[in-house]
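Throughout our pipeline, every protein is held as a single compact record rather than as scattered files. Such a record has a labelled line for the sequence and another for the backbone structure tokens. This encoding replaces a full spatial description with a residue-level series of whole-number codes. For reference, a complete record is included directly beneath this paragraph.
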Amino acid sequence: MVMEGNYDPKTKMLVMTGEGPGPDGKPQKFKNTTEMKDKDHFTFKMYMVQPDGKDELAFSIEYSRKK
């Protein structure tokens, strides 16, 4: 999977798009978002981009730094 994107410091959001093998092995477009809530918490979401351009959430992960 190859992805590229940009980080917006105002919204603390990294958005990346790219393409890789889908569940059926055929090329699939993807979108990832990473929201930096604070220095100890962030949320990662992966979307599969449908042929009509709509994002379908594949999964979401909540990360917390262990202290």
In short: Strands lie at 2-8, 13-21, 27-38, 41-49, 55-64. The radius of gyration is 13 Å. The mean pLDDT is 95. The CA atoms of residues 40 and 60 lie 17 Å apart.
